[in-house]
Each structure stands twice: as structure tokens, then as C-alpha cells.
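Cont'd.
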Amino acid sequence: MIRVQREDFDVGRELAALTAGDRSIGGVAIFVGLVREMVRGPRGEEPISAMTLEHYPGMTEKQLAAVEAEAQRRWPLARSLIVHRHGRLEPGEQIVLVACASSHREAALAACHFLIDWLKTKAPFWKLEEADSATRWVEARSEDDQAVERWGKALPSTTRSVGEG
Amino acid sequence: MIRVQREDFDVGRELAALTAGDRSIGGVAIFVGLVREMVRGPRGEEPISAMTLEHYPGMTEKQLAAVEAEAQRRWPLARSLIVHRHGRLEPGEQIVLVACASSHREAALAACHFLIDWLKTKAPFWKLEEADSATRWVEARSEDDQAVERWGKALPSTTRSVGEG
Amino acid sequence: MRLLYFAWVRTKVGKGSEELDPPATVEDVAGLLAWLKQQSPRHADALADLARLRVAVNQDYVTFDHPVKPGDEIAIFPPVTGG
Amino acid sequence: MRLLYFAWVRTKVGKGSEELDPPATVEDVAGLLAWLKQQSPRHADALADLARLRVAVNQDYVTFDHPVKPGDEIAIFPPVTGG
């Protein structure tokens, strides 16, 4: 299941809903992304007061559903969940939740890792940071591109970027 | 931090307590183990009505603290938490929680994976399954031994088993 | 043809979306980007460095040789930074 | 010397712990296990297959050649199955 929302989420409640009624589940791997206060700025590490997540409504849901389907295809998952927030968030706030439930612990852990790596490079979100009453768009990180490459070939119909053509 | 307890835990509340006050945290990787209803029995997959987790008080805390310290040594973690329950648990109940918080997503994910793998083979817990009004002790799985081997050499003072000598 | 802009592409162009009818000679993404640059100095500035742009046609990532046609929803944006 | 037994080692021995004073000739884990087997048929049954046993001395895993001495807390149990 995927959700794109402004509202915060409660990980305990999401976990209970995800696993409810399925007693084949032996493990749930979860990743929660938070807004960091210190970020890489033009003059090294510096604090931000907030960030705003812009997204592309419609495409976001389509891409998240595609990466979730890919995870379900690659690993034997009983259930999975992606919740991604948009709008203005302050340091310490939750941004994203990925949860993968499986009878097999390895499948849950690998699928969760895969989903957060893919999200970082495929989901159409953009972060605008506020620092010292100025704002700046966050640059994509080459580490994130490298992290996603470990998972092998991307889905041809949904994930090619311009530069790869 | 480590805790060994009979009581259930709320993952949302544990997560909030783990990250409170540290705004350097960019991601938290969590693993929650649940009691599965269907287990490998002598006649293939069969349902259990409950399991009882026996543990070695004192050594459990010592070993969990050692694996947590090893994770802290290997990865730049801001915070970490292991909660392991003991006593009688029914299918669907939570058994174990591992949570690793870091400014780096990869560190959080790897440390969480490491901790659950180590727990499985090092923490002195034993599962007694109840099925059809009979009980049986769960056998250790060779897959778990293999899973932990990927993380390289164990701590010499705490983790050698008899068979490795 | 519906054009959508996000993040700094949006702020540079000065709007989040617009309806445009490029000439029939515009057959693919590369042709569309070249034509769009000529629409205003703001478009030219936003689209100056093609290596920093990603394009989606009908909500799927595409390469520059992907065809475009009337009725398509075409989004232009920087590399994504969510998660 | 305090002996602790867990899981099926405990149920086979019939108790979770006992205080024992092995003779001075018992110097390591292997010697202790051999001596324990002679204490009762239940001990002999519980400790019959050494390959299925793990031992901790003072709450650390040890190998069979690890020394044991009076005052030690020595636990004998099957491979662990937590998590």
C-alpha cells in the first residue's frame, strides 16, 4: 500500500495495521526518514530551520506503486507500505516510512532496503531547505545513485532518467 | 540501550523516545520480530497455539549489550535499541525490536540487519512451541548461522560457541 | 500539450504549468526542449543545462528521444531528492 | 561451582540449577562435562551429545578447553533460538 500525505504518521499504528490478520508474518523491516537539522550547505554543514517537500501529484503515486510492485516481485512479501509526506517539515519530523512484512526476515530486510534506495532516486519529490531566511533546492546526491545501482537493472518503463538514454 | 522484558512494546513510542532530542538523526532502521502461527514441525508446516521464550537472566543482558556495543563500534550510530521479550507469546505477538538511528541511512540499515542476525545466534533465548497440546523445543537453524557469518569475525570474548573451538 | 515544471525549473520558468501547442516539427523530448527554450528568456534560463533536467511523459521517466504528441502531460524537473 | 541448565538440557536434567563441587582433577569444560555425566542417569542423558551443547562460563560463551574453577557460574544449554 502507498500513501502520499501532509499529515504525520504513527509507526506503531501503521505497523499494527500492516500486520493485522496475517499470522504468517515473522518479521517486519521498517525505515523511517527524519528531517535532519544539519545539512550540507554551500559552506559545509549548517543548520536549517525547515524544509518543504514539493511533489508531482499523480506521478508520485504511480512511481511509488511501481517500486512497491517491483519489491513484491523480487521478494516474498506478505505486506508492504510506503508513506511519504509532502509540505513543510521541521527538523526531527518524520518524512517517509517504508515497511515490509514477510515470513522471512531476510526478505523483509532486503525489500525495505531496496525500497528506500529506489524512493530516493525515483519518487518525484524535491526538497527546498530554509536556512538563515534564505531557501535553496537540495541537490541530488551521487551516493544515492550508487546505492540504487546495487539492486540491478531498473524497470524500463518507469525509471529511466534522461541522462541514461 | 537494551531491555529484556515480559511486556509488549509500542514501536511508535519506542521510536519517539529513541530519536528525541537528537536532530542529527536522518534515518531509523527498525526490525520487529513476530510470532508466526505456522512453523516447521516434524511433519512439515503446522500451526502452533503459543510459544514460550526461556532466557538466561544476566547473560542475556550481557550478550545484548555486547552485540549493541559491536554495532556501535562498526557503524556511526546516534542511538540504538534492542528490546527482547520472554515468557509465553501467542501468534501475531511481537517478540523482538531492533532499532538503529543514524545520520546516515546506510549505517542505520546495515547495523539493524547486523543486530538481528547476531541476536538470532548469540542471545541466550530458547523457544518452546506449543502445538496440539504437546510442546517441543525449537531447533537452531543453520540458515541463521550462515546469516551471521556475513558480518565477519565474532567478538572473541563473547561469541565463540563450543563447536568453533 | 500540458507542460509541468517542478522545483527550481518551476521557479525559473515562473509557473508550475502551462498549455502549449508546439509545431508539428516537434516530435520528441529533445525537440520540445529546444523549442521551449525559445518561448521566453525565463524558459531559456530554466532549460539551459540539459544534463540537470529529467523529463517524464505521462508520469513515466523517459529519455530525450522519447516521442511527444498533442495531449501528452510532459513534466520537466531536476533530479529528485525525496525519501 | 554453580551449574545452570536451560531449555531441553534443563528438562532432561530435571532442574534449572545446582551447586556442585567437582574434584580438583576437573580443570576445564570438557572435564566438567565428563564428570557431570556420571552424577545421574538424567545428567548422562542430557549431556550425551556434546555437539548439541553450548557452554557459558560466567555468562560468556566458551570452548570445551576453557578452564573452570570453584566459584564459576557455568551454564549448559542447546544452541540458542531467540530473535
